[in-house]
């Protein structure tokens, strides 16, 4: 029996080998016509299929499921509740644009951007907000833990990465205590990012009254059918009165306690005011999908809280994007900000793999006299991604932009500042993965004081950087050039 099975498998292998050319043609046709994709991505997958036949197609099926225009993350209750304010704001903004079609003030320059995000994702524009900027993980998590200790109604806690280490054990202690006090506690993690969380840890949380759900969990411990589609969001909402969004995940490296990365430079925002509703809605949509519990059926999670009198009337939109949207909203927001710049653009990102439109817009801006500055890490956490980043940074430098490599540890901040008027920070990197594959969320802040502070921090970071000048880039060795070319070739898949 065993010899018969071996013989049959050998015959099958011979048949596949003898017909490999025709099998590859059929699989290539499926890659081209199976789903509508960016031609660059299609050609890259065809290249993969050429070099690793059949296996390449299996990778395509695992990594490239398409969720565009999929309604599985939408809930009718939230769409109905947002319909009225969206229609009202749309009419008011259209009226302002019609009254001043060619003579918009600095404050009005971004009305079209507000309108775009309003209509594309229901990102309601809010004022009377305030925020605090965190660039240090220890300070941010200390603040978060202290705020969670004061919760009386609920804690909604969502991170891409949650590691089972000292930091999460300290957080879990607070979460379990609040659950025992009767506070509703929900923890949402990503199946890939939270793979180090054991069943024992999750069961312990649940036994303490904490509700835990995993977004796109693994089929087995390490096997993910949706490996390419990750929930990259980091959102915390406490009692509807304070919210957090930004780049820090939950792990000791984010406290600058990892020897390889050293100091971890990131950016996170603490927000007060009506814009928290945007974070709450985004969390609820993700939670509903992962847990099948519809939070929109309970209005207490979406009641407007009375903001403190000390708020500084900052204007915000909470914008989200992901493979379930028909348009890459955060990418389009970055693109509009770049096109609108008249004086300067400051960008911080650990991964710089722009699509053609973003790269062209930045090069045109730099060539037109706009001060374009890009800050990236000096070391990789993902080698292929880093060398692709280095390659695209070289394109920007040759167009007249400036690039800085952060030398004081690892740069993980994700955001853009434009003309000291508006900034956009959150979870989205300046790369194709964040634009099209990951589920992301950013805070788009239309406030001069906040943007000036972000730019001050950026300039302070420059003192800890080395400028990657054109002469230095041109003198890089052949080994680096080879890494760049291979990584750039694979960039649509990174």
Relevant terms:
494 residues; Endonuclease, Chain A; 3 domains; 15-stranded mixed beta sheet; two-stranded parallel sheet; globular
Summarize the structure in words.
The protein is of the alpha/beta class and 494 residues long. The protein has three domains: 2-63, no CATH class; 72-84 and 129-313, Endonuclease Chain A (Endonuclease, Chain A), CATH 3.30.870.10; 329-493, Endonuclease, Chain A, CATH 3.30.870. 45% of the residues lie in helices and 19% in strands. The protein has 17 helices and 19 strands.
Write the layout of secondary structure elements.
Layout lengths: L1 H17 L1 H15 L4 H13 L3 H9 L12 H24 L11 H11 L4 E9 L2 H13 L4 E6 L6 H15 L3 E7 L8 H9 L3 E5 L19 E4 L3 E5 L17 E2 L2 E5 L3 H16 L22 E8 L7 H12 L3 E5 L3 E2 L2 H12 L3 E7 L5 H16 L3 E5 L3 E2 L3 E4 L3 E5 L3 E2 H6 L2 E7 L1 H15 L2 E3 L2 H5 L3 H12 L5
Parallel strand pairs: 2-3, 3-4, 7-14, 10-12, 11-17, 12-13
Antiparallel strand pairs: 1-8, 1-9, 2-5, 5-6, 6-8, 9-18, 10-15, 13-19, 15-16, 16-18
Helix pairs in contact: 2-3, 3-4, 5-6, 6-11, 11-12, 13-17
């Amino acid at each position: 029996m065993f010899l018969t099975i071996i013989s049959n498998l050998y015959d099958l292998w011979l048949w596949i080998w003898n017909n490999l050319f025709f099998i590859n043609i059929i699989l290539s046709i499926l890659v081209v016509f199976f789903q509508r994709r960016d031609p660059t991505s299609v050609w890259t997958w065809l290249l993969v299929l050429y070099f690793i036949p059949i296996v390449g197609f299996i990778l395509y099926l695992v990594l490239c499921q398409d969720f565009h225009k999929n309604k599985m993350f939408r809930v009718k209750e939230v769409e109905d509740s947002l319909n009225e304010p969206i229609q009202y704001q749309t009419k008011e903004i259209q009226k302002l644009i019609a009254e001043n079609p060619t003579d918009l003030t600095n404050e009005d320059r971004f009305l079209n951007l507000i309108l775009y995000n309003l209509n594309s994702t229901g990102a309601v524009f809010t004022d009377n907000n305030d925020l605090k900027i965190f660039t240090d993980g220890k300070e941010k998590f200390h603040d978060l833990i202290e705020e969670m200790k004061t919760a009386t109604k609920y804690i909604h806690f969502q991170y891409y990465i949650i590691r089972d280490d000292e930091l999460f054990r300290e957080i879990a202690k607070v979460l379990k205590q609040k659950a025992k006090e009767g506070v509703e506690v929900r923890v949402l993690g990503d199946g890939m990012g939270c793979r180090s969380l054991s069943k024992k840890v999750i069961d312990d949380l649940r036994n303490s009254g904490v509700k835990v759900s995993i977004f796109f969990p693994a089929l087995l411990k390490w096997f993910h059918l949706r490996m390419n589609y990750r929930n990259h969001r980091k959102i915390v909402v406490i009692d509807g009165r304070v919210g957090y969004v930004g780049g820090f995940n939950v792990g000791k490296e984010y406290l600058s306690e990892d020897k390889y990365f050293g100091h971890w430079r990131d950016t996170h925002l603490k927000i007060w005011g009506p814009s928290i509703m945007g974070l709450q809605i985004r969390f609820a949509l993700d939670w509903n999908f992962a847990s099948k519990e519809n939070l929109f059926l309970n209005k207490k999670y979406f009641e407007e809280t009375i903001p403190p009198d000390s708020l500084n009337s900052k204007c915000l939109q909470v914008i989200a994007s992901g493979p379930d949207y028909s348009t890459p909203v955060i990418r389009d927001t970055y693109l509009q900000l770049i096109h609108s710049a008249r004086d300067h653009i400051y960008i911080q990102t650990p991964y710089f793999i722009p699509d053609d439109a973003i790269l062209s817009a930045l090069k045109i801006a730099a060539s037109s006299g706009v001060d374009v500055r890009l800050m990236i890490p000096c070391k990789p956490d993902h080698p292929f991604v880093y060398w692709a980043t280095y390659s695209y940074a070289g394109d920007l430098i040759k167009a007249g932009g400036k690039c800085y490599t952060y030398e004081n540890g690892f740069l993980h901040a994700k955001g853009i500042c434009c003309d000291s008027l508006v900034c956009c920070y959150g979870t989205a990197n300046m790369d194709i993965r964040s634009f099209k594959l990951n589920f992301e969320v950013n805070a788009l802040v239309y406030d001069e004081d906040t943007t000036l502070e972000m730019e001050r921090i950026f300039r302070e970071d420059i003192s800890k950087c080395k400028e990657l000048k054109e002469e230095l880039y041109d003198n890089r060795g052949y080994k680096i050039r080879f890494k760049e070319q291979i990584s750039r070739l694979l960039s649509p898949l990174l």
